[in-house]
Every structure is written in C-alpha cells, then in structure tokens.
Amino acid sequence: MEPEMSRSKAAARIRAAAVAEFAEHGYGGTTTRQIAARLDLSPAAMYPHYRSKEELLFAISYEGHRETQEVLAESDLPGEQPVVRLRSLIAAFTRWQAAHHALAKVVQYELGALTPEHYLTVVEVRRSITALFRSVVEKGITTGDFDSPDAEGVTLALMSLCVDVCRWFPAGAYTDPDAVATLYADLATRLVGAEPATLG
C-alpha cells in the first residue's frame, strides 16, 4: 500500500522537520511534539496531514526510496559496457546518499520502526533497487568483464558500501558528494574485479 503523499507545503515542511529530528535523535528518541515544536506548531496541527509518527516515517521512507529509484533510472546506461553502467549507477547512488545524508540516514536505518504492512511496501522498492545492481553485476560476470564468482555477495557488498555513506558524510576531506561518488565508483570497479581492458 503506497502512502497518500500530500504535496501541500505544510506536509512537506512537516516531513522536512521530521527528517531533521529523526536523523538527529533517531525515530525512537523523537516525539511528535518535538517535530511540531521545530515548526512552531502544536502536535494537533500535524494530525490532518499525518495521523501518527509512524505514518510520517512511512511517507518519508517511501518517498526517499522512490526518489532514489528515479535517480538510478535516470543514471542507468543500459547500452554501455557493464563496468561503465555500474560506475554510473554507483556514482549516482552514492551521490544521493551524501547529498541527502539526513534523509538517507532515516530512510536506511529506521525501517524497523515501520508497521509490517508499511515495511513490505518500502522493501518492495528497495528490492527493485538491489535487483538493478545485481542485474548489472550478473551481466558483467556473464560477459567476462567482471571477475567474481558470487554475484549476490558482491551486490550486497556494493549496496552496503553505498548505503553507509549517509552515516558518516561529511567527514575529513570528504565534504563534496561528487568526490565521494567518484571514489565509490572506483572502489566498485575494483570490487567486481573489472578487467583492465574494459576501463579504457
């Protein structure tokens, strides 16, 4: 069941305030009163838009996953060699995690707070994202461009690598999402064991 995503400015402001609170204090450590206070509203003023804190989290999580899915669709290069396609996807995925690190942190690490029904809805989108990456890895293995015996394991490693960016970004010398995107595209190339000939 997809959430009925309100496009009103008020609902968008509530989601933004909730992302900031959830990212800073965690879902469990945040109350609707705190979210409302950030907007100088009463908790009752949030109710017409979101009936519960969990419903608000669901809207944020679903929206974040769908936005990621759209970014990846725009960045995919189906006609290119597997390594070129993988680098483009990894760079886009990593860049989104860094550029939207507060939202990504909520999206990636608060799934367990969703109701079973809402969790399954979000996980369906999440699985489609993983399936996209796995299809590219499998293609590279089939063509011989990638030197890896385990498409599933490599895919999980790639996804974990990118998803974790939101936990630490920004840090040290890495304050530019584009720089992290380039770094992770290089790391992904090495992780799949891409043949040197495919990198030219």
The largest sheet is:
none
Helix content: 55-70%
Classification by helices and strands = mainly alpha
Query: Can you identify the CATH class?
Result: Mainly Alpha
- CATH fold type: Tetracycline Repressor, domain 2
CATH architecture: Orthogonal Bundle
Order of helix and strand elements from N to C terminus: HHHHHHHHHH
Which outline best applies? elongated
Question: Can you identify the CATH superfamily?
Answer: Tetracycline Repressor, domain 2
- Low-confidence segments, given as residue ranges, are none
Number of strands: 0
Overall pLDDT metric? 93
Radius of gyration based on Cα positions: 19 Å
Q: State which percent range the strand residues make up.
A: under 5%
Number of domains: 1
For the termini, the CA-CA separation is: 45 Å
State the helix count.
Answer: 10
Protein name: Transcriptional regulator
DNA-binding region: 31-50
GO molecular function, one term: DNA-binding transcription factor activity
Organism: Rhodococcus rhodnii LMG 5362
Structure commentary:
With 200 residues, this protein is an all-alpha fold. The chain has one domain: Tetracycline Repressor, domain 2. It is 69% helix and 0% strand. The protein has 10 helices and no strands. The chain has helices at 9-25, 32-38, 43-46, 53-75, 82-99, 101-109, 116-143, 151-163, 165-168, 177-191. Helix 1 packs across helix 6 and helix 4 (53-75) runs parallel beside helix 7. The longest helix has 28 residues, at 116-143. It is elongated.
